[in-house]
Amino acid sequence: MGWVESLQRAIDYMEEHLLEPFSIERIAKEANVSVFHFQRTFAILTDITVGEYFRRRRLTLAAQELSNTSCKVIDIALKYGYDTPEAFSKAFRRQHGITPSQAKNYHGKLKSYNRLMIQVSLKGADPMNYKIIERESFQVVGVKREFSCANGENLIGIPKMWDDVHADGTNDRLVKLNKGEINGIVGVCVDKSSYQAEPLIDYWVAVEYNGETQDGFMQLEIPASKWVVFEVHGAMPDAIQKVWKQISSEWFPSNQYTPAGTPELEVYFDGDPWSPDYYSEIWIPLKRD
Known about the structure:
Number of helices: 10
Domain HTH araC/xylS-type: 8-106
Strand content: 15-25%
Number of domains: 2
GO molecular function, one term: DNA-binding transcription factor activity
Low-confidence stretches: none
Shape: elongated
Protein name: AraC family transcriptional regulator
Keywords: DNA-binding, Transcription, Transcription regulation
Structural class: alpha+beta
Organism: Neobacillus vireti LMG 21834
């Protein structure tokens, strides 16, 4: 099954189970990827989290029922996963701008979020510069934090971690330790969802380094892999987010590879990260589909 077909299968599964308590683990299984990879790919392609997609779709269907049936508001609220009419009304107003009662009486406009169909561009209007390399295992040293992938918590926590390592001098200490082929600060994402009940990742800010672990730092071995290394040109964070979207929507759908599921890297080199000329890289370990 191809990359796009796997994602669409998971989305179709979500649509078929909209009225049930959703299990992100079960959804990711439909796509044959980890929870972390599914959530990240979904967010990259749609600009919303899986949880937000569920909320929008449920409230869209709830509005349709209110407008077209004689069901009571409380019954609609319970059907679409809200324990009280008050909670339902608050969520409904946030999405539609009117109350459920107003919708039932045809007062005001409704906002519809339709069933999602993944469409990707295989034309590659903007060229992607990349190379395929193979490397033996290597070591990085740095600091790590654990983040939950639930409700996009990692998307909030990781930028704060970067702020912290710059503010407390950790970044400068790591730069001095950097001894390896990768001559830059590395953001390493380690997916832990395959052996945790909760979808978790470890995120590292690190450098390639061979030697004894320095005080205050931990060591991580990056396994031997075939890597695709993408060039990123432009100011952070927009440039790297744009390339991640191209990777998900253009590169993987048109290649025979899928992510291997082992640690992925973002490499930040010396320079002004807000400059339009700034250069960075994305490293993804590969396996054949």
